Amino acid sequence: MQENTGNNHFSPTVESVRNIIQSSQTRTEKLMALCQLLNESVPYYHWVGFYIADHRKKELNLGPFVGDPTEHVKIPFGRGVCGQAAETLDTIVVQNVGLETNYLSCGVDVKSEIVVPVFKDGRFVAELDIDSHAEQPFTEKDKAMLENLCRQISSLF
Ligand code: SME
């Protein structure tokens, strides 16, 4: 399920991601399985979830997630790290949430966060949000692995 590709980089295997995406489950079940896979594969991915874009209301709706329940079930575009990613349409890495002014807290244990947008035919449809209890845990390899995973997820929308 998990491979350590060196330099303490953890990642789910390509096969385990592909098996989930190609399974006969519903999209919600697949997204949940991917959350569980990421959470189990990478020791510093403590909260893993998806937000689904509602362009009419210009807000994000919480989808499948693993980790502590969050009060942030609806997030307007522009608010917090997730809302910023919905506007910039770019991956956002916050290595120390204490230094981020536009941030919605999900608990005192959270020290860092990465948000990766998902696109379908060029349109922003969802985002993957990962919180970590570690400071500065995210490397370029995390970013590349998660962006690749989000490109694969595009086929689910
Ligand atoms: N911290 C996020 C809110 C979502 S929680 O991390 C689950 C933000 O600033 O947008």
Provide key terms for this protein.
alpha+beta, two-stranded antiparallel ribbon, binds methionine sulfoxide, 8 strands, six-stranded antiparallel sheet, Beta-Lactamase
Structural features, described:
With 157 residues, the protein is an alpha+beta fold. The protein has one domain (14-156): GAF domain (Beta-Lactamase, 2-Layer Sandwich), CATH 3.30.450. The chain is 29% helix and 30% strand. The protein has helices at residues 14-21, 27-41, 80-88, 140-153, and strands spanning 2-4, 10-12, 47-54, 59-66, 74-76, 92-94, 112-120, 123-132. Helix 1 (14-21) packs antiparallel against helix 2 (27-41). The protein is globular, with a radius of gyration of 14 Å. It starts with a strand and ends with a helix. Methionine sulfoxide binds at residues 47, 49, 70, 72, 75, 80-83, 103-104, 106, 113, 129, 131.
